[in-house]
Amino acid sequence: MATTNTHTTERRTGLTAVDWIAMVLVIVGGINWGLVGLLSFDLVAAIFGEMSVLSRIVYTLVGLSAVWMIFTCTKMSKTT
């Protein structure tokens, strides 16, 4: 029975591809909020336009990723 790299990575780290994508988006969101707090600079708005459709999609994906990471963290805490 052949396994793909995704399954090998999941067994090794306990994270799926979706978990990794969510983690990256949460990190992007955290960096963006850090820039907003420190410099009053919204990187997402600067790239995609203030409250444009694309920036709203990014904000939504970051928010959903944060919720996803709650479940991922609980999954990770049960495996250790």
From TrEMBL:
Q: Domain of life of the organism in this record?
A: Bacteria
The residue ranges crossing the membrane are: 20-41, 53-71
What positions belong to coiled-coil segments? none
> InterPro entries in the record, alphabetically?
DUF378
Q: Name one Pfam family in it.
A: DUF378
Q: Which UniProt keywords apply?
A: Membrane, Transmembrane, Transmembrane helix
Specify whether Transmembrane is a keyword of the entry.
yes
User: Can you name this protein?
Assistant: DUF378 domain-containing protein
The organism is Alteromonas pelagimontana
